[in-house]
Amino acid sequence: PQPRPSPPVPHTFRERSLRRGVPCGGCGAPLGPHGLVCRVCKVAAHKRCESKVTSPCQPLPPPEL
């Protein structure tokens, strides 16, 4: 039997101040000065679009030194 893929990890959003023009992961429109950012994968979203973010939450690769 093939191993089951692990279930997608839900995003863990927190409110942050953002640069203008960062695209929303839910609707694609640019965010204003405030929005939500996932602590793990850093995807940004409007508060109203939090439930619309469909991309899986995957940790970013470690930065190369």
Automatic annotation (TrEMBL):
- What are the alphabetically sorted keywords of the record? Metal-binding, Zinc
Source superkingdom: Eukaryota
In its keyword annotation, does this UniProt entry include Coiled coil? no
The record's GO molecular-function terms, alphabetically, read: metal ion binding
Which ranges carry the Phorbol-ester/DAG-type domain? 10-57
Q: Give a yes or no for keyword Metal-binding in this entry.
A: yes
Record protein name field:
TNS2 protein
